């Protein structure tokens, strides 16, 4: 095995750390079981690790899947695991000395929280969204953020198909009645979904998968997106949201949370929908104006709805979905043919395992190798792996402000050494540089580190070897 070190300040210290390289690495396969069976690592790859393994502290919140926890533990990191999110003050206390934090959708990493995270280098969002993180503040501090944008697409698409059928047949109402001892066999306003039109708002990975599933069940599919996207199967794109609402029997939302999508479905949109149509929202809670939906369902304009997301959601499980959380809660729960689920669109074993693998792998690659491939708030930069034939090489990672003259200053510092390979890219106000330097010793690496740290443009310096 080869040794690997990283020089980077921890809090106010500028310390040097030694560690033993791992014998395996992890990639992003399609399933947890196949992951451990399909890792093919060239025998001459030199694995870099940034700190002594016992010094890397990882905090995982909100019941991150076992697959992701296993990857991080096998790296030798100190992993603390909690099943729930934490209130902001408790989170601040916990985050002060960790290098890696993994969260899902409930934990809010605001600027106030991140300001206290003196050792933090990377955040893993074990979910699709990243709106719970102040991405710009994180980037400004040199903290990379990774997520898993596609791993739960199939799970969400299958849930929507199930909800379409349940709404069309009023299955949830019949089931509730039977649980209360009432036999109510009816066919009035119960429909097959074959031959009906599904309108998909947002034709990304989830929308496209849903499109294929719906067509296979005999539905016609139309979709609206702000981009011109190639249709799958016989689906067709319409030019405006109003066109879609006027034609669709079922409308389903799959859009990100953006200023332009907030309140995207309000009174005007409900009036544009077909009489007796259905609405499904498994995207973001702010997309639908819930009081307007309540009125549309009371009037019969909307015959049924399924909601998996809400403007305000509880931080943990319990009897918290009430009027204190959302003032319209009781009115919403009183409606008929309404499916309410607690943000479980991606909550399947398969999806959570895939998310755990993808995000944990991205985290270890960033910590160990400096690769930002897949980061949502940093330029995507990666270099090929060093090999065991390069024992006296070091990898410089320099995150800096994107201002004129920085590269000239950096290259002046590196100029006395042999730079084998180098890559740099910028994103907004932040730039990311990686360089592999050969034939350097510990003293020279310390000098490189000190010189880079002294630059006024510096955000974060890491040196791996």
Automatic annotation (TrEMBL):
Q: Does the keyword Oxidoreductase apply?
A: yes
Q: What GO molecular function terms would the record report?
A: 2-oxoglutarate reductase activity; NAD binding; phosphoglycerate dehydrogenase activity
Q: What UniProt keywords apply to this chain's record, in alphabetical order?
A: Amino-acid biosynthesis, NAD, Oxidoreductase, Phosphoprotein, Serine biosynthesis
Q: Where is the composition biased (Low complexity)?
A: 19-33
Q: Which reaction does it catalyse?
A: (R)-2-hydroxyglutarate + NAD(+) = 2-oxoglutarate + NADH + H(+); (2R)-3-phosphoglycerate + NAD(+) = 3-phosphooxypyruvate + NADH + H(+)
Q: Where is this region: Disordered?
A: 1-33
**InterPro entries of this UniProt entry?**
ACT-like_dom_sf, ACT_dom, D-2-hydroxyacid_DH, D-isomer_2_OHA_DH_cat_dom, D-isomer_DH_CS, D-isomer_DH_CS1, D-isomer_DH_NAD-bd, NAD(P)-bd_dom_sf
In short, the EC number is 1.1.1.399, 1.1.1.95
Q: Output compositional bias ranges, type Basic and acidic residues.
A: 1-13
Could you tell me the Gene Ontology terms of the biological process aspect for this record? L-serine biosynthetic process
Entry keyword Phosphoprotein: yes
Q: Which PROSITE patterns match?
A: ACT, D_2_HYDROXYACID_DH_1, D_2_HYDROXYACID_DH_3
> What metabolic or biological pathway is this protein involved in?
Amino-acid biosynthesis; L-serine biosynthesis; L-serine from 3-phospho-D-glycerate: step 1/3
ACT domain boundaries: 395-465
Q: Sorted alphabetically, which NCBIfam families does this protein's record hold?
A: PRK11790.1
UniProt function note? Catalyzes the reversible oxidation of 3-phospho-D-glycerate to 3-phosphonooxypyruvate, the first step of the phosphorylated L-serine biosynthesis pathway. Also catalyzes the reversible oxidation of 2-hydroxyglutarate to 2-oxoglutarate.
Family to which this protein belongs: Belongs to the D-isomer specific 2-hydroxyacid dehydrogenase family.
Q: What is this protein called?
A: 2-oxoglutarate reductase
């Amino acid at each position: 095995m080869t040794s690997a070190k990283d020089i980077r300040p921890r809090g106010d210290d500028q310390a040097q750390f030694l560690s033993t390289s791992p014998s395996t690495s992890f990639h992003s396969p399609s399933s947890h079981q196949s992951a451990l069976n399909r890792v093919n690592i060239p025998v001459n790859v030199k694995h870099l690790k940034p700190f002594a393994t016992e010094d890397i502290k990882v905090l995982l919140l909100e019941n991150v899947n076992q697959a992701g926890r296993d990857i991080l533990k096998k790296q030798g990191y100190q992993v603390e695991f909690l099943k729930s999110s934490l209130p902001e003050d408790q989170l601040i206390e916990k985050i002060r000395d960790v290098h890696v934090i993994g969260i899902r959708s409930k934990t809010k990493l605001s600027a106030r929280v991140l300001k206290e995270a003196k050792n933090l280098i990377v955040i893993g969002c074990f979910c699709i969204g990243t709106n719970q993180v102040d991405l710009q503040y994180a980037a400004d501090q040199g903290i990379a953020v990774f997520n898993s944008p596609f791993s739960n697409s199939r799970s969400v698409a299958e849930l929507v198909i199930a909800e379409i059928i349940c709404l069309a047949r009023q299955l949830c109402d019949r089931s509730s009645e039977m649980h209360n001892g009432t036999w109510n066999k009816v066919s009035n306003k119960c429909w097959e979904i074959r031959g009906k039109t599904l309108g998909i708002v947002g034709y990304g990975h989830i929308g496209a998968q849903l499109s294929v599933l719906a067509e296979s069940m005999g539905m016609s599919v139309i979709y609206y997106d702000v981009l011109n996207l190639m249709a799958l199967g016989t689906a067709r794109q319409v030019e405006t949201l109003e066109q879609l609402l006027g034609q669709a029997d079922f409308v389903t939302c799959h859009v990100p949370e953006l200023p332009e999508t907030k309140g995207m479905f309000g009174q005007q949109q409900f009036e544009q929908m077909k009489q007796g149509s259905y609405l499904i929202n498994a995207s973001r809670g702010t997309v639908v104006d819930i009081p307007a939906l309540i009125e549309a369902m009371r009037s019969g304009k909307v015959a049924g709805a399924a909601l998996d997301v809400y403007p305000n959601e509880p931080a943990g499980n319990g009897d918290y979905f009430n009027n204190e959380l959302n003032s319209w809660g009781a009115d919403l729960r009183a409606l008929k043919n309404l499916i309410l689920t607690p943000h479980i669109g991606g909550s399947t074993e398969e999806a959570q395992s895939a998310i755990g693998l993808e995000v944990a792998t991205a985290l270890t690659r960033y910590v160990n190798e400096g690769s930002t491939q897949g980061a949502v708030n940093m330029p995507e930069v990666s270099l090929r792996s060093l090999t065991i034939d390069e024992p006296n090489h070091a990898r410089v990672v320099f995150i800096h402000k994107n201002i004129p003259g920085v590269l000239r200053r950096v290259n002046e510092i590196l100029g006395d050494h042999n730079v084998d390979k180098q890559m740099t890219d910028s994103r907004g106000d932040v730039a990311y540089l990686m360089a592999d330097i050969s034939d350097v010793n510990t003293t020279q690496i310390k000098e490189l580190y000190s010189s880079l740290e002294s630059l006024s443009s510096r955000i974060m310096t890491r040196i791996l070897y």
